[in-house]
Amino acid sequence: MSKEKSIKEALSNTPFWENTPSAFLEFCLSYGRIRHYNPKQYLFFAGDDSGHIYILLKGRVQLILMSEFTEKIFQVLRPPHLFPELILDGKTYPYSALALELTDVLTLERQTLTVFLENNPSLLWNFFRALALDQRRALRQIKNLSLGDARLRLGAKLFALAHAHGQSEQGSIRITIPLSATELAAMCGLARESVSRILGELRDHGIIATEKRNLWVKDLNLLRRWIHERSEH
Questions:
Q1: Residue 206: which domain range?
Q2: The model's pTM
Q3: How far apart (Å, rounded) are the C-alpha atoms in residues 145 and 57?
Q4: Are residues 43 and 157 in the same domain?
Q5: CA-CA distance, 29 to 51, in Å (whole number)?
């Protein structure tokens, strides 16, 4: 696929960028550079100087919050996705980004993009709306992590993954990202043993099925009710 076709397709399917003026497409074609990443290769690290904004064209990228001794999987991106909008303030990257599979991204140099937006201020609304969506997602995660017990946190994460990365398959929804109990634990801020135990409960209730690193949600409405029951306690 040509660079122009890849960028057009990505922008037309990215929330809030569907009706992007042709000037932005021309800017991406003139100043953007496509980069390729192998599985388990980092695009950038938290705290690095924020030189570029990325548009995910192919593959999957894991966003990771890091401290000195721990890390937490914040989000898994699939194409098309523009990230991280936060660096328009000129500060460092707020998280690390890791390619999970063969990944292609379009990179835009932040300072060049900033000048372009200053000359085309109407496009800032696209960034504002995308930031608002990310803010709502972050607040939902904070709520689940801070107010919910372990079952609620894991259930809510599985529900979100089924919506963001689910694929219908013989009456179930397969989460298309291979995930271990350890990776799910990192996403939810839980111990791996707790995640394994709760996954067993969900299997016993007929809500999910698992096989190695693959997971299916057998009944999304049943999972929703299971979550709702625990949110009321």
A1: 149-231
A2: 0.68
A3: 30
A4: no
A5: 18
